């Protein structure tokens, strides 16, 4: 078994360009905090274009069943900004739909960003609903969610091109006070339990431990 991302850096660049243009037109980019509340909450949905040959390296063939596909790691399904969360969910649905078309049987999806998520602000609920939609989009795909056994403060590292920094400042809430972050021994379990319960304990959904460069199913 080998792993392969569903989409290419070309698709990533196209999405970033569309997102930057949309935020600039709305006057509510992450560098502009002067937009009114109506603009903050009523942005037009971003239309994600269909995949073209340069956007993915996967095609239906005899060897496709040996590939474990990986969804985009730069999305943010549990963003506090509903616009970013919706864009991320649309990207995931597009990728899962295409993977199902190719005949992929297994897809790995990055787990929620626990350091920015909360059981009370709805971010994990948004993540779980996106996973539920993905399960419907790929009716024969087994989905594994990458999650660490323990939510360590050093696990969440934003990469260049992540959608998380595009979240509009007014929707991020007040930053926590500067203090040493404690190890949450049960944060991963609580997040997984919420996700699987919202997904109604779906038989095609399971959790995988993120261990260095390998994924070990639990």
The Rg value, from CA coordinates, equals: 17 Å
Q: Span between N and C termini?
A: 17 Å
Helix content: 25-40%
Give the number of DSSP strands: 6
Q: DSSP helix count?
A: 5
Structure description:
It is a single chain. The protein is an alpha/beta fold and 218 residues long. The chain has one domain (2-26, 56-171, 183-217). 33% of the residues lie in helices and 14% in strands. It is built from five helices and six strands; from the N terminus they run E-H-H-E-H-E-H-E-H-E-E. It has a six-stranded mixed sheet with strand order 1-2-3-4-5-6, with helices on one face. Helix 5 links the parallel strand 4 (142-147) and strand 5. Helix 3 (82-102) packs parallel to helix 4 (123-137) and helix 4 crosses helix 5 (187-198).
Brief characterization of the structure:
The protein is an alpha/beta fold and 218 residues long.
Which features would summarize this protein structure in a list?
218 residues; alpha/beta; six-stranded mixed beta sheet; globular
